[in-house]
Structure to design on (477 residues):
């Protein structure tokens, strides 16, 4: 049962118990119009709601003072989306000197059904160790001993009803689309529902008896190991771990990888020791694909697939933090194409887009994989270099060397073709590059960008197709 649903049903059950114990007449408003029930003092099935209301009020009138209910056990069980069964065992302590009843175990079965926007009680069944009472009585305090044989038959009947409901629950489980599973304490699978074969292609007999790690790829195994280690640490500190939720890729029999969201909870023995796990796995491959698309649109330029301004600023923030720790310099290269507008004016934006795409490919080929290349907009590009020398002079030389490599590569002629049958267009296009070296957090992100941008404009003013280094932050100020 989903934790939120379990919380809701537990809240409904607790409200019922509290109103019953307090002899609160508002309890009668919780009964469904199609209510049925067995009272503890009568073995006949009551099908009339008003009759059950009368019995409830008779109960409250016979024992008007608050009673105490000592809960022994409670089980919540889904039958379907709008029907839930709550089964409880408890002792009833009446506010009197007669304590025979408190020694007996009473059993209550409540069936909650969602009707419209409200959860109402559709069925109530009490199993209390007596059968008949005198007129006007609910608790037959004079005849408890006479009821034992009837109690046994009633318990057997209710047990059979519970077993039937459990069989229905198993049927619903087998037909569920989500994968239900259980493992022992060593993470060896002891049960997996048929949904796994529909999802991944493995039969249950190919999975049961194997370690759960066999279900995941290497990254998924690493995620699970990290969560296990975290759980061990939290348990050692005295913090019991309940539900865990994580997302990992699962291996399919045909070699595919699919994404699954796993909800897992440990099984514990009477001493609180973990003896296994159970949980639910739901496929989220399509959701992950959509999330990746959203991320791509949010942080990448749709034309060149380079990082956009937002992602570049994040990477610059990370680079400045890393530089502060390592004392190594970083550098920002700000580029502007020198001969882009005439191409757009003469051949249109479609050809201009082809040039921008080719520029992006050349830029990526000139830098390391750890460096970031971004399109700031129009024909402006930024290259972020990290892990340069700790010496400012050497760092500047390294940055200029990479900038020269970029300038030379971008100055090579471009051959652009908008369609396979269209004539190719040869175009000469260079770049003006401004270089700003930084270390740590001696200045803000915007200051680094402004210094590189200003150096780029000086390169343009001095003739284009050249590199200009920005003065340090103190000199710039």
């Amino acid at each position: 049962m989903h934790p939120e649903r379990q919380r809701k049903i537990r809240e409904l059950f607790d409200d019922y118990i509290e109103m019953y114990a307090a002899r609160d007449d508002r309890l009668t408003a919780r009964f469904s119009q199609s209510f049925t029930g067995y009272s503890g003092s009568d073995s006949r099935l009551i099908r009339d709601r008003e009759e059950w209301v009368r019995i409830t009020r008779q109960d409250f009138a016979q024992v008007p003072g608050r009673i105490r209910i000592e809960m022994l056990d409670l089980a919540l069980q889904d039958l379907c989306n709008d029907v839930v069964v709550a089964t409880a065992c408890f002792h009833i302590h009446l506010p009197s000197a007669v304590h025979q009843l408190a020694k007996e175990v009473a059993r209550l079965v409540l069936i909650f059904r969602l009707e419209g926007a409200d959860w109402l009680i559709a069925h109530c069944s009490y199993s209390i160790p007596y059968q008949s009472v005198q007129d006007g009585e609910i608790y037959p305090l004079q005849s408890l001993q006479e009821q034992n044989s009837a109690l046994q038959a009633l318990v057997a009947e209710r047990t059979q009803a519970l077993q039937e409901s459990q069989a229905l629950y198993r049927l619903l489980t087998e037909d569920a689309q989500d994968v239900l599973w259980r493992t022992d304490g060593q993470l060896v699978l002891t049960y997996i529902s048929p949904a796994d074969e529909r999802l991944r292609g493995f039969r249950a007999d190919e999975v049961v008896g194997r370690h759960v790690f066999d279900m995941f790829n290497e990254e998924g195994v690493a995620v699970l190991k990290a969560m296990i280690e975290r759980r061990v640490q939290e348990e050692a500190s005295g913090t019991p771990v309940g539900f865990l939720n994580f997302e990992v890729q699962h291996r399919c029999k045909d070699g595919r990888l699919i994404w699954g969201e796993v909800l897992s909870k440990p099984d514990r023995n009477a001493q609180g020791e973990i003896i296994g796990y159970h949980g639910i796995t739901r496929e989220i491959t399509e959701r992950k694909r959509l999330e990746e698309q959203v991320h791509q649109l949010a942080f990448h330029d749709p034309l060149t697939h380079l990082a956009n301004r937002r992602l570049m600023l994040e990477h610059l923030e990370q680079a400045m933090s890393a530089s502060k720790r390592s004392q190594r310099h970083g550098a920002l290269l700000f580029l502007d194409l020198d001969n882009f507008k005439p191409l757009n004016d003469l051949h249109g934006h479609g050809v201009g887009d082809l040039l921008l795409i080719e520029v992006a490919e050349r830029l990526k080929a000139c830098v390391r994989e750890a460096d970031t290349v971004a399109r700031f907009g129009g024909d402006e590009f930024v290259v972020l270099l990290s892990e340069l020398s700790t010496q400012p002079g050497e760092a500047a030389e390294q940055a200029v060397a990479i900038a020269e490599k970029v300038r030379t590569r971008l100055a090579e002629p471009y051959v652009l073709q908008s369609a396979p049958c269209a004539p190719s267009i040869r175009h000469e296009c260079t770049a003006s590059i401004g270089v700003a070296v930084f270390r740590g957090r001696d200045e803000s992100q915007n200051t680094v960008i402004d210094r590189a941008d200003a150096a780029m404009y000086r390169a343009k003013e001095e003739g284009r197709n050249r590199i200009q280094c920005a003065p340090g932050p103190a000199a710039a100020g």
User: Anything to note?
Assistant: The longest strand covers residues 68-80.
